[in-house]
Amino acid sequence: MVEKSRRTRRKRKISSQSQGSKSGGSKEAKSGGKVVSLSSRRRRPKATSNKLRPKTNLQKAASPSGTKQASPQRKTRRRPTAKSSRSNNQARRLRLKLPKPILYPIRFAIVGIGIGAFIGTLLAISNSRPYISVTQDTEERSQSFAPDESANPLPLETSLVTMRESVQVAIAADPELDATMLFVDLDTGEYLDVASSRSISAASTIKIPVLVAFLEAVDQGTVQLQDSLIITDNVKGGGSGNFQYKDNGTELSALFVASEMSINSDNTATNMIIEQLGGFEVLNQKFQSWGLQQTQLNAPLPDLEGTNLTTARDLAFLLAKISRGDILSNRSRDRLIRIMSSTRNDNLLPQTLGQGAAIAHKTGDIGYIIGDAGIIDLPNGKRYIASIFVERPYDAPKGKELLHKIGKLFYQHAEKNQPQPIPTEPQESDKSLETASFPEETN
Question: Taking Cα atoms as reference points, which of 390, 368, 392 lies closest to residue 176?
């Protein structure tokens, strides 16, 4: 029975093979003699997609007679496995060779720079003004603030070389004396300059720019002439002036205080004006805005240590601006000239002037330094600026004598070189008056 069943199965197998060969489409013929189950076969792709998709190994095996069919194949990128991605990350880390505490800040910095550049680009695009307009505006502003040499109020045209040499000889004759000065004839441009840019203690001459600042504030409306100023311990200063003896709480008008600051050189009055105007820093900025390069308030008056500084050139420059009508209105300029013309101390520059000359000035004296600066009008209407300081032994009279000598020298030169009207032919009766018309000045 066993043999019979085996024969029966062999016959069925042989018959099925013969039938498949007749039909030309058996599994064994298509798969090259291999038996392939129907459940493992995949559906063939449509004819339209055969050119686009490559045949799988199963389709290759199902081709007739086991031959490979040539079909265009597209290279496909293989998806990296987890192992390959880990190897790539390790390779990148090896290339950087940076630890994480350093690597992360670098990454944040790069991101921050990128964000900043992006925001900056947006702001630049959103700016409605074109670049050329900004450039032109900047150039116009720089030109408007550029110093104008023609606006210099000091007409320094002709240096009096011979006079300067004689003055330097007089200064060097006494090793205990020294001097700095600038005299300028505003009509002819002749000037005497001896170390005028050297910084020196201002003493009470610092009250000149303080008075100018007060009157400028009046012009601007920030200060009223009738404002009440109160005397306190904080503003009281020794030395010259009577305000130091007044009771605390005494109220005085601003105009009266400013006048006493210059006329009687009251130190307490000066401190009151400085406080009213905003203090040292505000005033120093104002001095700089006028063009005073080395004038600076550093201490309340009387400043016996000499910490308040100026130069002969700075004071001459300021007085020349006032004379020309700069800084102050005409009314305030006239008020300043009246106040400075009433200065009680007439022991310095006023002693160098001839008969009929007028001076608006302010003196300074802290013992070892004396100084004076003012506007001088000659009898015929000519005007010059004088600014001079002399260093000396404490209260030594020879310092004042040197100042007088130099002041007279320039005054005589300015008077002698005044333009005179064209003389007419003298009549017979007028010949006796020729020598009497120009008497010699004696001081």
Answer: 392
